[in-house]
Structures are given as C-alpha cells and as structure tokens.
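quick one before i forget lol
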Amino acid sequence: MSAITLFIGGTRSGKSLCAERYAAQFELPVLYIATAELDDDDMELTIRIMDHQIRRPLSWTTFEQPTNLVMAMEHAPPGTVVLLDCFSLLAHNLLEAHRDDHALASAILAGELDAILAMTSERNLTLIIVTKELGMGLVTDRSEDCAYHNLLGLVNQRISAAADEVYLVIAGLPIELKHLAPAWHRA
C-alpha cells in the first residue's frame, strides 16, 4: 500500500536529516531524488550537497534530477521508498527555467506533482517529500520572490492534503501535524 510523508521546515531546520532517518527505518530499497544542482559559484551549496551525499547510505540509489522527477521515479520498482529532496528546489528550478512565464512554471509544477502522486499510487511506493516552509519567514517585494512564495505555498498545501503524515521540523525535531489538526479539518 502506498504512503506519502511530508517533511516541512525552514532553512537548516534539519528536515532532510529527519527524512533520511525516516526512510532508513523501512529497511527497503531507497531511491533518493536530489533536486539541487551544483553551482561552481556557490561554494556553500556545493558543501551542503557534499554533506548530503556523504551521509546517505551507499545502498541507496541516487538520481540528481533538478526537474522532471517522474523520469527518475520510473527507476523505482514497486514497493520502493522514494525520498524526494527537495520540492522547494524543484519549484525554484522551474521558476528559473521559465522566468518570463510564472504561469507556465506553475502549471508544470502542478503537472509534475500530479504525476508523482499518481506514480506513487500505481507502483505502491512509499514517498517521502522534503520541502521548505516559507510562510513563517521574511517576504520581499520582488516579484520573483512573491511568485516563489505563492507557488510553493499552494503546492505545499496540496502535498500535505495528500500526505498520510506531515512532520514540521523545527531545530531538528520532527513534530507530526496531521493528528494535531482539529477533527473538522480532517473530515
């Protein structure tokens, strides 16, 4: 039976590490889809990517896929754990690729999410998604930032609605939110 779990939190909250620990508990094959791209001009990002690579078990299969995540998921046999890290970078990557057409980026992202959710169900996957929570941070007046915040906020809501479990990660501590929601919201 397929399952979807969301890990959401702010920058450096520990959400990726929590998601990795969660994935490891299943003792099943893990397909790790990384959406971050190396950037020769951003040494900090390069170090973060290397840290993620080093702490991943060697038995996990990794695909570095900045967009079109379904293409990587096609390599997941039924019953696999798929850890997607991270959806907020996917949104960023699509907005960067379609700077002049935010509506197109939004449509592509929605289509990608639909395909990911469908494949999760069809292949009986355990899907773990990592994403940023931007609603508690600063928002600038730049149109690009507003577009990113709006797009990611809506997509995060869709993912959490589809998820069986949602963990908010604060200071490295995962707090499960679905069971905290009032009964009228769960219905």
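fyi The chain has a mean pLDDT of 90.
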